[in-house]
Amino acid sequence: MSVVNVVKTPSYDEETVYSAVCRHFEALGVAEDLKPETRILLKPNLLYGKKPEAGVTTNPAILKAAIRWLTSRGFTNIVVADSSGGLFTAEYMRGVYSASGLRVPGIEEYLNRDFTFQTVPTGKGFTVKSFNLITPAAQAEYIINLPKLKTHAMTTVSIGVKNLFGTIPGLQKPDMHRRYPRTEDFVHMLCELCETVKPSLTLLDAVDSMEGNGPGGGTVKHTGVTLCSRDVYALDMMAVKFMGLNAFDMPHLAAARDMKLLPETVTVTGDDLIPCSPAFRLPDARKSTGFGDSVPRILRKPVEKVLDALLRSYPQVDKSVCIGCGKCAESCPQKIIRIENKKAGMPRRGCISCFCCQEMCPVHAIRAHRGLRSM
User: Fold this and answer.
1) Of the four, 73, 270, 321, 331, which is 20 to 30 A from 7 by CA?
2) Helix (H, G, I), strand (E, B) or coil at 317
3) Is the backbone peptide bond immediately before 215 cis, with ω within 30 degrees of 0?
4) Model confidence pLDDT, tens digit, residues 216-263
5) Which residues, 6+ apart, have CB-to-CB distance to 109 below 8 Å?
6) pLDDT single digits (tens) 119-171
7) Nearest-CA neighbor of 312 among 219, 181, 211?
8) Which domains does the chain carry?
9) 8 Å CB contact between 199 and 161
């Protein structure tokens, strides 16, 4: 049995968040896991540098509360580390830290300054034989995973399992997309990564969440809760339920089920978990074609599956919005995007529909367009 603890957390007020974190950590007995010398990693979501109110990154109040709880109990061997969507260098990450509101007392002194990585072997029978992990993740003895509740153009949602993709260093992430272009293969890889990183605890920031074209270009949705669990898959299942969505419509949870990684039962403790109404809006790239609505209900899922096999969502740039910054080209696994006359050009041929370009676009100039698959 896995336990997911829920605490109503109506705002990012410092004392409100600290009270929520105290309730979570005490309900799950976190102090019993730790010794004064334990190497602790706090792994937030730092997709790219963005103000906290944009809903793109884990809010600083969550990090500050976790650090405060740990240090007040004598656990001080702490590092806050993530590899964002760009370069994994000191200069680049300083900018991400600043823009994301992390260079403040109570957090800044714990920010990662080691920008190396280590190769870590995976489990027996895994498809991926090893992962390159940022050194703080490879060396940590206790990992507290701190995702942000968001939708995602490729994986539908970004919660606990997807947040661990940030342990892959810098621009090695696009290479993983290139190696695993199909969503089914990519999420299988994410589950193997999760089993390799093995977070000890996952604390979800769902005070303000993101719906629509997440994880970077969606709309902020105030949801007013935090969730915490020792079991990242259980937490993701309950978070999807909270979003008003079906857990097994999420590719990574379907993969986890096939890999027998899901708990048999999940118990929710703390406050009531009431699904959002209306449910979270999905990314344009993940919306159904809608054609299945015209056939009998029993045939809708098979029809939608066939149509999704014939049609694909592709990124399309709005050149009236594009500023030619090149972030899309930098993040493209296929290296097919070109910046010409200060505008991005996105050919369909060669595109694997990973939507890394949309994810990293700072001005939200990229939209999903559904069309026939390239032959």
Assistant:
1) 73
2) strand
3) yes
4) 999 999 999 999 999 999 999 999 999 999 999 999 999 999 999 999
5) none
6) 999 999 999 999 999 999 999 999 999 999 999 999 999 999 999 999 999 99
7) 181
8) 2-270 (3.40.50.11440), 288-372 (3.30.70.20)
9) no
